[in-house]
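Here is one such protein, fold included:

. . .
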Amino acid sequence: MLAKVVQGCGFNVAANVLAQWLGGGGLRWRAVFHALVWGVLRGLFGVAWYAWLAVWVPGRSPRDVLLKVALDQFAYTPLFSVAPRLLTIALLEGRGAAG
């Protein structure tokens, strides 16, 4: 689990640094730190979610795959990807949870 979280975090930070480099505005360390924090949280959420999903929908039939995709898009994405990301950004930028 730890290796998956570290790997995901590394990709998140690398993508942030690459995007900043391609944007040409110089490296903003605060943005890199935010990418690091979100990478850890996203990694933890993702690893836990996909482990749970593999237990509760273990098959690989077309029906099972469709169910996994539906659960991923309609449950995981809004509850454990979009909402926590927005909350994390607001907290890291000092706006608080109501931000």
In short: The longest helix spans residues 62-92.
